[in-house]
Write a structure and sequence with these properties.
By secondary structure, the protein is of the alpha+beta class. It is built from two helices and seven strands. The radius of gyration is 24 Å and the shape is extended.
Length: 155
């Protein structure tokens, strides 16, 4: 025999005219519909968007060798950050595919950076790919960061 269940609590609903907050504490005017109404009325965006990358993405054309099993492809990067890169052209592997990359930086062109990466998606509708590096070593991160700082300073 199971123990008796406690009585159910009555459902409390807010009154229709009450201005309430959503789960994140935002007012209804801060929602997507509120944003749409403000933009439609000619008001500017109030929110500030923050960059999620640890380091900025820099547009560079570098050779990267993609290895997947026995297949090898040499491609040109579109942009590079300390923890990922994108390639504009070529076939797009499935999202989540693990790749081995050899990235050739101009500071030591004969000593490629060996990176394990995961495909995040295609670059655009034509193909290409965006990848994130999986647990790059400290030395690889330092070398990438040093190169990116030099490229950014030169621009």
């Amino acid at each position: 025999m199971s123990p008796p269940r406690p009585p159910l609590l009555p459902l409390i609903t807010p009154s229709p005219g009450e201005r309430r907050k959503d789960r994140r504490g935002a007012r209804s005017s801060d929602t997507l519909q509120g944003l749409y109404q403000r933009i439609k009325g000619g008001l500017p965006e109030r929110r500030s968007f923050r960059e999620r990358r640890a380091t900025p993405r820099v547009a560079v054309d570098l050779e990267v060798e993609q290895r997947q099993g026995d297949a090898r492809f040499v491609r040109l990067t579109s942009d590079l950050s300390t923890f990922g890169l994108s390639v504009r052209e070529g076939p797009t592997p499935r999202v989540g595919t693990k790749l081995t990359l050899a990235l050739f930086l101009p500071d030591e062109p004969m000593s490629a950076l060996e990176l394990e990466a995961e495909v995040l998606g295609s670059y655009d509708a034509k193909g290409g790919m965006r990848v994130k590096f999986l647990q790059p070593s400290i030395e690889v991160v330092r070398r990438l960061h040093k190169y990116l700082l030099g490229v950014k300073a030169a621009k």
